[in-house]
Design brief:
The strands form 2 sheets. The chain has a 6-stranded antiparallel β-sheet, with no helix packed on it. Strand 8 and strand 9 form a beta hairpin. It has a single domain, classed as Rieske [2Fe-2S] iron-sulphur domain (Rieske Iron-sulfur Protein), CATH 2.102.10.10. The protein is an all-beta fold. Bound molecules: FE2/S2 (inorganic) cluster (FES). The site of FE2/S2 (inorganic) cluster has 11 residues, from loops.
Length: 105
């Protein structure tokens, strides 16, 4: 995926996940302070949308809304059951008032 313009920075409020369709890749984007995280918007357990889940700001993780598994926003690692597999992560950057997403190389 080439760099994708996900839109203006104000569209990504603090600790509130936003679902972005980046040329067919569904991505959950989360702002925490000065950091922007981006993970695949598909829980590895049973494919729920992580963008509909809750962000746990203190540990930079996100909780799946369906069965409660949590995932590290930085690495995509599954932190709690019932998920055991990681979710994909994307490079997220912010510049000139916009957020950009890119596949990890
Ligand atoms: S679908 Fe996410 S924990 Fe089951």
């Amino acid at each position: 995926m080439a760099e994708f313009d996900a839109g203006p920075s104000e569209g990504f409020p603090e600790a509130s996940p936003v679902r972005v369709d980046a040329d067919g890749s569904e991505i959950a984007v989360v702002r925490l302070g000065s950091r922007i995280y981006a993970v695949a918007d598909c829980c590895s357990h049973a494919k729920a949308s992580l963008a509909e889940g809750e962000v746990i700001a203190e540990e930079a993780s996100i909780e799946c809304p369906r069965h409660g598994a949590t995932f590290d926003l930085e690495t995509g690692e599954a932190l709690t059951l019932p998920a055991t597999a990681s979710v994909g992560t994307y490079r997220a950057t912010e510049r000139d008032g916009r957020v950009y997403l890119q596949a990890m190389s």
